[in-house]
Design a protein that fits this description.
With 481 residues, the chain is an alpha/beta fold. The chain contains 18 helices and 14 strands. The strands form four sheets. The protein has a seven-stranded mixed sheet with strand order 2-8-7-6-5-3-4, with helices on both faces. A three-stranded antiparallel sheet has the order 10-14-13. A two-stranded parallel sheet has the order 1-12. Helix 3 crosses helix 5 and helix 15 packs parallel to helix 18.
């Protein structure tokens, strides 16, 4: 009897090829242990509210009123909600064709796209066209939509940083394209070398691959570095010279934990460069409500903005967006409030500033606690988390540990992370899930556990790690760069 259409051997091979380590073997084992009653600290994914971050008051008030508009008719509504939240809820409801339960335009509500454009103008100093801004169900959906537009077949390559967020490798595999890696340099604080980019493109072209686009993640995930303005200029000139589109993943732009390298958008640097580059390089920029001090991952709100994309291609992107009818409408309201928060003089302004500043200041402290904690451990080295939400320490595994992993049928850093999970309940992601140089091993953890819990977590990690190294180390040394 032939296999049925949804039997494993019959399904799309690209589905089998795609891998997503953030919710992979470690996460599944952590979920099993949790069901068995073990306390698990899920640091495997940047999910702030799941680790105790409180939602900001003002956006929740606005969305609550939009979700339950009958409250606006209650004579006592002003006793429960501030006047500026009430006014903002009425504003967003006026933008819809029937409240949050009605489909919006496939690109998103025009009024919210206008707010996004105003945010970009204020951030970059250059005007933005709301017609070239698409609201999406999280930034991930936007990335998938753009990659789907770019990739035609396996001969189309996308230049992706290694280590990288596995959304990119998984989506490229799913779409049948080819990932072209360029390696970030750990000893230079995960810096980017344009010569490395040129070498990667040349090698891919030698194999017959048409390299069509380059991805940057700024600030970096999983590596936490912030790109300098000079680095961004180099990247944009490189894209111009090599005829590459640039995909700028900028969802962590509010998550900055040092003052030397503030976030600068790819779009601002592109505009600053002037013609011909300003008019020629095709750029797609992504942002999200899931990160920053919002951390509203479950709301699934994001946007992408297109620069220098031909109208005919924009029409095709609109057509594909229309297949899904409408992005999530409540998330569009979150996006509007995130990019157009209370202003000085508004009733909710002081509380908004107090809450948002408190979150970012605490994240800055946690980044330092975690970096210092890792660097105090035996055979562990970690660059400081300049931005984003993650630490990505290198674990210098002894040869005996690598051999034990091989005997267990595990990749060495998976073996280490599983042992860590079983011993401490700390659920991380092995560096092999993001890509890394041969013979070098890492793990990724978020910096999101509560500030007051961070010292205990790092003590637990240190105790496990040092005992692990004691068990497997001998006088032959260990793996290192």
């Amino acid at each position: 009897m032939p296999p049925k259409p949804l039997d494993y051997e019959s399904i799309n091979e690209n589905v089998k090829k795609s891998q997503y380590a953030v919710r992979g073997e470690l996460y599944l084992r952590a979920s099993e242990l949790q069901k068995e009653g073990k306390k698990i600290i899920f640091t495997n994914v940047g999910n702030p509210h799941a680790l105790g971050q409180k939602p900001l008051t003002f956006p929740r008030q606005v969305v609550a009123l939009c979700q339950a508009p009958f409250l606006l008719d209650d004579p006592n509504v002003g006793l429960l909600f501030p006047a500026d939240a009430i006014a903002r809820a009425k504003h967003y409801l006026s933008l819809t064709s029937g409240g949050l339960g009605a489909y919006s335009d496939s690109r998103g509500l025009p009024g919210v796209r206008k707010e996004v454009a105003e945010f970009i103008l204020k951030r970059d100093g250059y005007p933005s066209d709301p017609e070239l801004i698409y609201l999406t169900d999280g930034a991930s959906k936007g990335v998938m939509q753009i990659l789907n537009t770019i990739i035609r077949n396996q001969d189309d390559g996308i230049l992706v940083p290694v280590p990288q967020y596995p959304l990119y490798s998984a989506t490229i595999a799913l779409l049948g394209g080819t990932l072209v890696p360029y390696y970030l340099e750990e000893t230079a604080n995960w810096g980017l070398d344009v010569n490395e980019l040129r070498q990667s493109v040349a090698q891919a072209r030698f194999k017959g691959i048409t390299v069509k686009a380059m991805v940057i993640i700024n600030p970096g995930n999983p590596t936490g570095q912030c790109l300098s303005e000079a680095n961004l200029r180099e990247i944009l000139r490189f894209c111009y010279e090599e005829n590459l589109a640039l995909l700028g993943d900028e969802v962590y732009q509010q998550n900055i934990y040092q003052d030397e390298r503030p976030f600068i958008s790819s779009r601002k640097v592109l505009m600053d460069l002037g013609p011909p580059i300003t008019k020629e390089v095709q750029l797609i920029s992504f942002h999200s409500v899931s990160k920053g001090y919002y951390g509203e991952c479950g709301q699934r709100g994001g946007y992408f903005e297109m620069t220098n994309i031909p109208p005919e291609t924009v029409d095709e992107i609109y057509k594909v967006a229309s297949i899904s009818l409408s992005p999530n409408v409540p998330a569009q309201v979150f996006m509007g409030v995130m990019l157009n928060p209370p202003k000085p003089g508004d009733i909710s302004y002081d509380q908004f500033v107090r809450e948002s500043t408190g979150i970012l200041e605490s994240l800055r402290k946690r980044a330092r606690i975690m970096t210092d904690g890792f660097n105090s451990c035996r055979n562990v080295v970690c660059n400081f988390t300049e931005g984003a939400m993650y630490s990505f320490p290198q674990i210098r595994l002894p040869p005996r540990a690598i051999e034990a992993a091989k005997q267990a049928g595990k990749v060495p850093d998976v073996f280490y992370c599983l042992k860590l999970l079983e011993a401490t309940g700390i659920s991380t992601v092995p560096g092999s899930g993001f890509g890394q140089k041969e013979g070098v091993f890492h793990l990724r953890t978020t910096i999101l556990p509560a500030e007051e819990e961070m010292p205990t977590i790092m003590d637990s990690f240190k105790k496990f790690n040092d005992e692990f190294m004691e068990q497997y180390e001998d006088n032959r040394g260990y793996s290192r760069l």
